[in-house]
Amino acid sequence: MDDGNGKAPTAHVEVEDRELLQSMRWWDGFVVCLANPGFLIAALGGSVVALGTAGAMVLWIASVLLGFFQNLVYAELALMFPTKPGGIALFAHEAWRKYFALVGPISTFGYWFAWSSVLSINGLVVGTLIQAKWFPSSTWQASGAHFLLNLPVVIGIGVILFVWAFNVLGMKIGLWVGYVTGGLLIIPLLVLMFGGYFSGDFHGANLAFNFPSSGGDAILLGITWMYFMGWSSYGFEAVATFSPEYRNPRHDLPTGLITAAAFSILVYALLPLGTGGVLGGATIAKDPTAIAFYVTAFDRILGTGGADVMIIFLVAGLILSMNSATMDGSRALYGVSKDGMTIKQLGVLSSRHVPGRAMTLDMVLNLWLLTFFHGALPIIAAGNLGYFVAHIFAQSGFFLLRKDRANWPRPYRLSGVLLPVAGFVLAANFAFFVMGGWVEANKYGYGLGKTLIGLAVVFIGVLAFFFRKLVQDRQSIQWREPAPQVPDADEARAFEAMGVRVEGLSDSSMPLAIG
């Protein structure tokens, strides 16, 4: 049959053939995770008020060391799936899919919400620092229906829109911003960590513990704060989210994970020590924002002029944190959409090879968080539940994959000596999650209500999974999904590019991995 012009009609099919670009080196991943100290800046004040300067320092060190050992586990998992973005949520899905398919969407939306909320948290921190330093007399605000607008919030909105615009322009621009702002962030960090010793403002008497006298209460307080601290001190796992984008993933990915963790250990030990030694817990506790005290610290160490410069640099570093968050969270959504765990629309790359739709969803969510929640710590409390769920499923998934896919190629393999350490980290995180997120949330945390908000986000993720399967894919819900025992053809090519031997394709078009 013709179309009236004597020509047979032809079908036109558009194929989504865009892929994430392999443009990153290990130092690009490291620079992305220079954002991690920005997360510490958001939470340090609250921890000092609750634990004292010395208590906060000790627990931050313990938390970041747990994050370091986690990274060794994630290095193995990331290189098992070299073609798949998504990070720890993807690892959880692959390990648990044969046991309970909902682990994938649960982990993904929990992980995404935690990372995405960095934009609103750091946007608020940036606005608070700018107001405290240059507009201290500004007190205007407008509110209604629990939403709030004031100068810090308006500044935060502007920064969120700026970061979103830069990221949708493409990965190379995002990394360029990361290099510049990462370098700027190091300068105020060094001042806070060491400046007090040279200026004479550091005093050992300012370091003190603030734990309850009862041993049991002190332990519960510490466990609850280890739960809150994980949101910040585990963040360098984001290096693993970019596994398909490294030029040489076998070298770049483990190196990026380990160097980012090592840098964070230094900062998380020395920043609480230096800042606490200069100000003391009483001064920090007087700051109702739990943020503006950094302006006081810079004023004491450098004077007003030097403090102005340091606040500019610190703001630039916080923008790096926001840049990292939108890069990481959007790729998590993109990866799980490609794996069929959430709506199809999020699994599409823009013409610039970035997940622009997922980035836009991040932006809209954070504008709501910024105006609805009246503080950074309540947002952290809401997002932390899903973040710990993703870590717990990913870490337990490490042991499941060792059992279920024993012959799967592992370009990087965690030493058997460290397996008990991996088990301890898993058990510790589970205890932090149960006690800090639920049992002691009202007494030592920021309220069970915040935990329930995080639970609601996870529930929305499950509904999106059902919509994808039932409506978009027209499939029945499979509570258990078959898990491949050998890599597919694309993964086989990725392994071979890393120098890992893979046999030819089997009759089922699946390669048999032998190396």
Walkthrough of the structure:
By secondary structure, the protein is mainly α. The chain folds into 2 domains: 26-483, Amino acid/polyamine transporter I (Up-down Bundle); 489-515, no CATH class. Helices cover 67% and strands 3% of the residues. It has 18 helices and 4 strands. The protein has helices at 26-32, 36-51, 53-80, 88-96, 103-116, 118-134, 151-168, 171-199, 215-233, 249-279, 281-285, 293-338, 356-372, 376-404, 419-439, 441-444, 448-472, 489-497, and strands spanning 141-144, 147-150, 502-505, 511-513. The strands form 2 sheets. The protein has a two-stranded antiparallel sheet. The radius of gyration is 23 Å and the shape is globular. The model is unreliable at 7-17 and 504-515 (pLDDT under 50).
Topology:
Blueprint: H1 26-32, H2 36-51, H3 53-80, H4 88-96, H5 103-116, H6 118-134, E1 141-144, E2 147-150, H7 151-168, H8 171-199, H9 215-233, H10 249-279, H11 281-285, H12 293-338, H13 356-372, H14 376-404, H15 419-439, H16 441-444, H17 448-472, H18 489-497, E3 502-505, E4 511-513
Helix pairs in contact: 1-10, 2-3, 2-9, 2-10, 2-12, 3-9, 3-10, 4-5, 4-14, 5-12, 5-14, 5-17, 6-7, 6-12, 6-13, 6-14, 7-12, 7-13, 8-10, 8-12, 9-14, 9-15, 12-13, 14-15, 14-17
